[in-house]
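Researcher: Here's the sequence for the chain we discussed earlier.
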Amino acid sequence: MLINKDLIITDAEGSNELDVITLLAQRAKSLGYISEVGQYVEAVQKREKEFSTAFGYGVAIPHGETDAVKSSFLAFCRPAHDVPWGENKTAVNLVFMIGVPKSQKSTLHLKILANLSRKLLDDTFRHAIALCPTSNEIFKMLAELEREITIS
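Model: Thanks. This is the structure I predict for it:
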């Protein structure tokens, strides 16, 4: 299962992208999705240095390639305050972190990224997820996204 209700964090305290990435990685580790927090965070930071995953609209989609990912996942964080992201310090308030085992990187990773990006270009979806009062409602929205990924 790609989406797990326990991988959804709202009103998280974090003053920078590393805080948010680490928080999500720690949660993924505690749920058995990754084997090593430091290795995964390092891979995500390496990807961020190549090109920021903040793509506008207050959204970032951090991801990294590493064998530390044991099982594919999509984690979500809505920080309590905008987080400066990347070299340009883009204000981010919706973070979707992707983890895919290195062996599945080329196919599943691209499928998740493509479907998620398409959804996030929809103003209605972005605003709805930004304003969802509970993680249960966010989970329902992301579960729908997971169905679309498995169908396509």
